[in-house]
Every structure is written in structure tokens, then in C-alpha cells.
Amino acid sequence: MGLTVAQKIIQSHILEGSLDAGGDGKEIGIRMDQTLTQDSTGTMAYLQFESMGIARVKTELSLAYIDHNLLQTGFENADDHAFIKSITKKSGIRYSRAGNGICHHVHLERFAMPGKTLIGSDSHTPTAGGIGSLAIGAGGLDVAVAMGGGPYYIENPKILGVKLLGTLNKGVSAKDVILELLRRLTVKGGVGKIVEYFGEGVATLSVPERAIITNMGAELGATTSIFPSDENTLRFLRAQRREGDFIEIKADTDAVYDEVIVLDLSSLVPLVACPHMPDNVKKVSELAGLKIDQVCIGSCTNSSLYDLMTVAAILKDGVVKEGVSVTISPGSRQILRMLAETNILADLLSSGVRILECGCGPCIGMGQAPVSGAVSLRTFNRNFEGRSGTKDAMVYLVSPETAAVSALYGELTDPSDFTKDISFKLPEIYSVNDNMIDAPASVEEAVSLTVVHGPNIKEFPIISALNTDISAAVSIKVGDNITTDHIAPSDAKLLPFRSNIPYLSDYSFAGCDLDFPERAREYGISFVIAGENYGQGSSREHAALVPLYLGVRMVVAKSFARIHRDNLANIGIIPMVFVNPSDYDRINLSDRLEIRGIKQSLTAHKSNFKLINLTKNESYDIITEVSVRQMNYLLAGGLLAYTKQLNQELV
User: Fold this and answer.
1) In this structure, what are the phi and psi dihedrals at residue 40, rounded to the nearest 5 degrees?
2) N or C: which terminal CB in the chain sees fewer CB atoms within 10 Å?
């Protein structure tokens, strides 16, 4: 039996275990060729790497990008950047300065390579799957381990094949492809799977278009998404003057996918994800005429040169409708330079848009919060409630085409009805300038360098090794699809404190229960009870570290998002799943729960437990879905403690 693209790359990188078809659930450890971090999650990753006592990274290539916390209204963000700059210089890691662009765009342009593996401390790392990389988002601790040369572990994934047919019609874009998949599969549809694209329609999509699709595969909950590496891949690499990085990777003709979805590109229409979830998808035509207040174009999903040239062609000789605020955040400095060199930037400015810095900006709540009760169209990947910075704003996710046409009319408008000719030709060679990517010091130079720790950088919380029994009260009970934004809110006021877990703890679950931090502190240690898909969204491990700091020792949920489940195990919080989901309804806030003999059970690698409700005198069957390896982490008090314990044993 032949192999798919993903299976070929996994097979060539396996360090532990074996590749088995069908997603049998067995763990495999794979070698990571490249790592990336961004500044919102990077400080924790580098604090963890520093604590491991490893002098230099052991990957082929590691990069630190400054793209999230770009507003410097106080010393905090600047201090974080100084810390990242100093530790990367010393540790053999390249450093992309503030203003150079969004990590996923810059990495796609300058460093991602077909056939390579990449792990990043950002859930949208699979963007590089558009160029044929096996790129996976993970928590900072997993990235730190990979930088130290350790494997990254995944369960043998199912391969979901998406067969693309036909070609996109006028007004329809790659964003509509992934929105259609979200409509069909939901935000839980990709859990435990790698989404791989194949079929004749693949050849009609450029690398930037493919990257849009793989980027938002994170919203499906997929392990990653990937396209083959073909002639279009070579064309993109040649435009970046990197044709030497090209290798062809295609699925074997007899490759077998565990599931197949057929998607005819020519049948798609412009789509929109309605508030407050990326899978709440409808046709734009169904909502046409909805008055809008704001349009934000950019993010790691839709800020490529192709996207912005499309927007410029639509807006050229027009003016943004009165009462609508429109912003554009270019994905990289390369893109901004090329817009300026071709006078396209002048066209955009003449139309009345506001050009923001090359960074994540409004996507992660770093500015541009809309007016109260606003309707905001955004070309981003997430529209969780409050993420924009305005609690009652209604955020709709759309393509750049829909965003630009709607900006002209002041209402949600179907771009397929737009009659203006917007054809253009992408340049064959891009403007390449890497002078804002700093090289690390040599091994000899690094010896004399010191790492800068500013006053805002606090140590991450740790817990002691696991006790025999756990008895604690329920400090919060939440519903389905609770995101990492709910657990550790992300906005312009809180992002500067990503290195300060004690400060962030005051805002944990702020969107669900304002009394949670005080209650958790009062209880000392506690349980969290949750519904389906707990922890979806960002890879930020702050959503695990903040509850840990507040004394949470176990989360019992109907199901977990992959990255968050792993982050919990990595830092020592035990993730458990209800065997009978209806038992969720039987537990109330402040109920006293207990698990007996958990240390002995995990030591024996047992996964089935009884959760006793002392308040109601009843019990429930629960299981932990973590691996044997992760059970060892939990017993030790987390991955860092386990790693140090191993090192001591080796000595």
C-alpha cells in the first residue's frame, strides 16, 4: 500500500514507535527539523528551555518572531522582547525583529521547506503545510523540548483526504474552501486527524492560497493540514529565490486515506462564519445587506501579497463607505515593500484604508477594538466572543474579496456580484530582504553573553509530584467549546503580561465567571468540570499555567482539544474524560470530588478511574486519554520535572 504525503514525511522522521495506518492511537515520536515561536507564547517557551540547562538548540533551524505584542504602552512588551532577543542570541536561534512580519507569513516566505517537519508555539503553525511541510502547533514546553533535540509525540493520525476538483469561480477564494470544510465538519471534525489535499483542483491553487486553507485547518481541531509539493511550490520558492529548497512530494497513486471528502471548487460560493464560532458558516448571499461598522483585513490567514493585491484591485478608484473603518495589516515587511514599490500602497491609501504594522494586530485583540455593538468583518481565523476587544461586537469571518467589496458599500456584499475587473499578475520574483532577521552568536561568542530578565518576567508555576489521593471542590463548571481565550483572555491590556502568570491569574475565566480566581484561591486546590471540546483555539499554554497557579489539579470534561489536553499533561494538571457524558449534568459548582489511589493507578498505567462526589454520595466513571509517557509526566509533576528527573538518573 502506498503512502500519503503526510505519511511519507512522518515515516522519514520517526524516532520512536512505528507508523500505522488507520489512526490506531499508538504514539510515535518524530524528529522536528525546525521550530518557531512568537512573542506571546515565546517567553514561556524560552524560560522552559533555559531551565533545561541546554546551551544551544539542536534543530536544523529555530526562529523567534516578534509579531503579537507590538504595542508598547508600557515596559512589559519591550522587556519580553529584550529577553527573547538575548536568549536567542545566546542559544543559536534566529530572531525576527518587530515589524518584520507575522511568523507564519515570514516563515512561509523565507524558511519553510517541503518535506521538513516544523513545530511552533502557535496553533496556526500548519500554515507551512501549504508549501508541503509537516507543520504542527503545540505548547511552548513541547517546542522547548524539540529545541533541545527531543522528539515530538503524536498519536498515529487518521489521514482525512480532501479531493479537490474544478476551479474557483469569480469572487470565490481559498478562504471559502476552508469555511466550507468548517461548515461540513465543525470545529471538532479534525480532531486526531491530518487533513491532506489531493486531486486535480490542487494545481489551480498557489502556495499562498494553499496556506490560507492549512492555516485555518487549526479551527477544525486537526493535528495539521498539508498539500503536496509540486510545480506551484517550485514557482513560489523560485519567486523567493529559494528554488534550491524544493523537492517534489506527492502521494503515491495507491495511497489510501482513512476518509475522503470530495470538494468541487467550482460549486463553492462566498461564505461567512457568523458570530461567535468559525464553524457557524452561512452563504454571504443569505446575509447580504447587513450594515457593517468595521472591516479588518490581514492576520496570518489573509495578508499575503496575493490577498492584498486582490483587495487593492477591488478598492482602486473607489472610496470606503462613510461610517466604515477599514484597516489592513500586511503579513510581512516583504509584502509591504512590494506594495510600496508597485504603487499599490498608494491606491490603498487613496481608498481610505488605514495601514497598520506588519503583525497580528487586531486578530489577537492588539488594538482596533470595534465600537460597542458593532458588526465587524474580518479576514481572520477566529471570531470568539470578546476576542476583538469589544464584548458585544459581532465578528464575521470573510474572505478578502468579501471584505473589500463590503467596505465599498457599507454592508455585507456578495463579491461574486461585483462587476469590476480585478485581474492582476503576481510578480515572478519577490523583493527579498532579510536584514531584519538577526543571526545568533557563535558558540564562542555566546559564552560571554547574558540573558536579560526584566521585572515583568516571572517564573512559571510548578507543582510537586502527584499524591496518592486527590480531594477537592469544583471551582468552576463550564459548557461546550470553551476556548483558550475564555480560560486565559487575550487582549491589548493583558497580552503584555504573558510572562507574568500571577498577574494573569486575576483574569482567568473572566468571560465565564468573574468570581473564579477568588473562589479558586479560597479552595486551595480544585477541579474544573467542562463540556465538549474544552480548550479549543490557541496553543497558548497560559490556559493551563494560569489555572495551575490558582490550584487547579484536574479537569474533567466531555472531550478535549488536542493541544490543550497535552498542555495540561505537560504542566501536571490531569485531564480526564467522562465515560458517560450525561454525568456532567450531575455535578454542580462547589461539589466536593475525590479520586483515590490515583498515583498507584497511573504508576500501573491504568486509565480508568472512579470520580466520587462526596457532596451527593455518588460516583462516575472517568478515563484519562493521555499516553503512558504523559502519565509519567503527571506522576513527576509535569514534563519539566520529569525531564530533570531523567537527567539526574542518567548522571
Assistant:
1) -70, -35
2) C
